[in-house]
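User: Round two. Same drill as before: sequence, then structure, for each protein.

Assistant: Same drill it is. First protein:
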Amino acid sequence: MVAVDPGRRALLLGAAALACGLPLAAAPSGAARLTLLHTNDTHSQIEPFGPGPFQGKGGIARRATLVRQLRQELGGTLLLDAGDVFQGTPYFNRYKGVLDYQLMSMMGYDAGTLGNHDFDNGVEGLLTAMAQARFPFVNCHLDARGAPGLGERLDLVVLLSHLGYDMRGEALDDLHLPGLVPGIDVIIGGHTHTFLDAPVRVANDQGGTLVFQVGFGGIQLGRMDFTFGGGRLLASSGGTLPVLA
């Protein structure tokens, strides 16, 4: 578990749930603002893509530069990953995920969850690589039914998911989860390498859940902005940022 500062009021859920948080940044008129930056299915794409449909896109150094610029500009941000960091290039064959987690730590990721490919070297291989990570992995359950006051303390409930965006009825996915699990405000997903231009709002009894996924390979960085005031969410927006030179 990650210790929760009483002054921090975001909740992160990882493939199930874990409490974590971030101070909200100041916004005009006494409101507060939070920005989520996120990746999924980066698959050891350390360098930009070579010849092909994604030539010149991606690269972890370029992503780090973009993240640093956004943090300097925005203040209150949370950098998250929705899994499948491993597998896909010779960098994984050589470094077995250790390099990925080292570089993500240098970039300042705040949390991540695990995807199916992160187990490609078995549990021991995953644990060896995880030892290099200086950020928490969220992947546990939170049941707040016995603590009704907990829901009054949270501004935003975020799920880091590796279920897939739309599994077409073959398995549970991010489009159907909001109808089964109440209270989720945002799902940041992975697994299906789905390129979305903006978050998709899935209707449910609580008014709706934003679902977002940004392809694969670190080609794009997801951004979601939230404004809070008077103890409630006032506005939200989101989109993708290309990772280019």
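Second protein:
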Amino acid sequence: MTVVPPHRFTGIDNFRDFGGFRRRDGAIPLGALFRSGHLANAGEHDRAILQGLALNTIVDLRRPAERVQHPSLLPAAFAGSIITEESGDRGEAPHLEFLKQGDHSDAAVEAFLLDYYRAAPLQPRHLILFSGAFAAIATGKILIHCTAGKDRTGILVALVQLALGAHRDDVMTEFLETNRIMLTVENRSRTAAGLRRLFSVEPSSMMIDAMLGVNAHHLDAALESAGHEAGSLQAYLRQLGVNTKWQADIRWLHS
């Protein structure tokens, strides 16, 4: 079993193991399911740790433009699969497009985030990527990441945990762990300075939190949206490949 404390990485943000939770018929072990921010700043030490995880698959949820701007730095000996999706590209990240519109009020930030989370599980490119991730979990160890490792990654990780039988409270606790890791004084100060420089505004606490952290009711909105569109959350998961065969295939993951 491989357990990697987040502080061991110097160039990969928001890394953690999202296994280790109980389910009705046992537990999902640590050392098989990982999540993080992008890998573009991974130094030699970080790449050595990644190599030691013996990952079968990396799921990169980023759009093509994001991958071009910040190419992943992977271990030279990495022999696993990398799942990406080329469709649905855009020149700029949604949150930057929103901030450029000029309304930086807390109400506008909240409305943007709710809309984003409600739409994210239904985007065609996410459906492709999420389906690929579920198929990959049946074959071995996996790392899921986007840019910050909190919104797209957070939604997919929550879906994976629910499909694996985690209690909703445990799923939410794991989702909110991003705040403990990322909402540090140093990160908040650096983000505030960046927002001032880019948009000539004095960012509110809520704006800074939106850039770095996550909110429980946003994840609730994403899961509700997915379930509403498909008829139920279980039906949505079936669309992603969570069926009887998948449940049999992931028995390797049970402890």
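Residues 180 and 246 are 33 Å apart (CA to CA).

User: Perfect.
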